[in-house]
Amino acid sequence: MTKNKKTTDTISTTAVATPLVELTKSVSTVRGKISVLSVASEMYPFIKTGGLADVVGALPEALAEQNVSVTTFLPAYPAVKSTVANTIPVLDLPAFFGGNAKILSGQVNGLSLFILDAPHLFERAGNPYSDASGNDWQDNPERYAALSMAAAMIGWGAIEGFKPDIVHVHDWQAALTPAYLHYLGEGRHQPKTVLTIHNLAFQGQFPAHVFARLNLPNHAYSMEGVEYYNAVGYLKAGINFADAITTVSPTYAREICSAEGGMGLDGLLRKRGNAVSGIINGIDINIWNPASDALLASSFDATSIEKRLMNKRAIETQFGLPQADTPLFCLVSRLTWQKGIDLIIDSIDAMVGMGARLVVLGTGDRGLEAALYAAVSHHPTQVAVRIGYDEGVSHLLQGGSDAILVPSRFEPCGLTQLYGLRYGCVPVVSQVGGLADTVIDANDAAITARAATGVNFHQITPAGFQAAVDRTIKLYHQHDVWRGMQQAGMHSDVAWRRSAAKYVQLYTGLLR
């Protein structure tokens, strides 16, 4: 292994000599509260590429109601810097992973934030992880090592007035934080650490030569450290050193501990044993509220579901489809193999033959995008596609489509089915991960008990998916049954309150 000459102890840090009275009020541990530093690569409403941002954005408010104070630490992408105004510099980081950097503090809409202002790493337009051609930034290893290293410094108490009890990191981009705390924290304050895995498929694995630039001691490159199949594994390191590992649903927590679902990390996850658990995601029911959603053509609630028809008409107008009373399915998703998009593409002819229509909003694999466009050319009055993502359109699709398709091959939690439940848009889901934990299948017993909220299928093949669509269409034409499913979904508890209470239980257990 190449000798790592530059150790973290040689990186100088300077607490900024700024009056910190107001800062301390906003970010210090409030007496009696648990203080948490949440570390992530994205957060709604500042920067979003997927569900991770929604979760990181919603948790602070939900935890505040449970007597937990959360400060979130983000990279200072341009979109973040432009939104977080009136920041205060609280820590200088000279010569930090290739350039001068500093940590800024700020507040937006009641959210307490630290942001890592490192222009040489994060001052780039567009997607946070890749360039305009869709290629990963070549310095991603350094970018997110810097985020993790700075998070460890904050955890040690490098910022005056802030010493968190818990450092809660999300996904591979922040997963080196527990490793830095472990290897470089001797004699320093050691917060407890929680790693949440939002999707095990993204592990942050990089060539071995990257290790020399991580400012870790040489002995950290070992099987017990950050080495992973002769490479460097960021998520592997987090699993190794975090005090607790959570996933975003109980079923997914079990799946990733199996050889079939563990993606090479199942052995380590099984070794961690009871440290691994699953806590289902919630959603922000203030943002996702059909009774007050200004992004809809018509607001409604469980007692006025008939008003959804105006939203269905608005979808038809926006997407150039003729008005019809046939079932309208929507897809709001990343267009990837994981999400089962190929199953939908292979089934479009069959869906149209059953009398269904389909509207797609998403972006991803270029081949899948092209295949969806080809389906539009074959069925211009039944299929419509919009490549890209638009928050307003996604709300409208949930508020006006009859059903939402989520045929994922694996799904840690999923949020679109939760939005669908909230908006009376019946989810059609594969029986995996968080989909299995959140959608109650419309079997005879569930329909009789008026508990059914969606349609689940086990066989993740075109035939299995088409059978689920056929069953959904038949249920759609049973007016009372369908209305009962919509109302049951809208009454589902998809808020963060119960899940936040489980995080608090986890935090208090670690601190105890």
UniProtKB/TrEMBL annotation:
<dbReference type="InterPro" id="IPR001296">
    <property type="entry name" value="Glyco_trans_1"/>
</dbReference>
<comment type="function">
    <text>Synthesizes alpha-1,4-glucan chains using ADP-glucose.</text>
</comment>
<feature type="domain" description="Glycosyl transferase family 1">
    <location>
        <begin position="323"/>
        <end position="447"/>
    </location>
</feature>
<feature type="domain" description="Starch synthase catalytic">
    <location>
        <begin position="36"/>
        <end position="271"/>
    </location>
</feature>
<dbReference type="GO" id="GO:0009011">
    <property type="term" value="F:alpha-1,4-glucan glucosyltransferase (ADP-glucose donor) activity"/>
</dbReference>
<keyword id="KW-0808">Transferase</keyword>
<protein>
    <recommendedName>
        <fullName>Glycogen synthase</fullName>
        <ecNumber>2.4.1.21</ecNumber>
    </recommendedName>
</protein>
<dbReference type="GO" id="GO:0005829">
    <property type="term" value="C:cytosol"/>
</dbReference>
<dbReference type="Pfam" id="PF08323">
    <property type="entry name" value="Glyco_transf_5"/>
</dbReference>
<dbReference type="GO" id="GO:0005978">
    <property type="term" value="P:glycogen biosynthetic process"/>
</dbReference>
<feature type="binding site">
    <location>
        <position position="48"/>
    </location>
    <ligand>
        <name>ADP-alpha-D-glucose</name>
    </ligand>
</feature>
<dbReference type="InterPro" id="IPR011835">
    <property type="entry name" value="GS/SS"/>
</dbReference>
<dbReference type="Pfam" id="PF00534">
    <property type="entry name" value="Glycos_transf_1"/>
</dbReference>
<comment type="pathway">
    <text>Glycan biosynthesis; glycogen biosynthesis.</text>
</comment>
<comment type="similarity">
    <text>Belongs to the glycosyltransferase 1 family. Bacterial/plant glycogen synthase subfamily.</text>
</comment>
<dbReference type="GO" id="GO:0004373">
    <property type="term" value="F:alpha-1,4-glucan glucosyltransferase (UDP-glucose donor) activity"/>
</dbReference>
<keyword id="KW-0328">Glycosyltransferase</keyword>
<dbReference type="InterPro" id="IPR013534">
    <property type="entry name" value="Starch_synth_cat_dom"/>
</dbReference>
<keyword id="KW-0320">Glycogen biosynthesis</keyword>
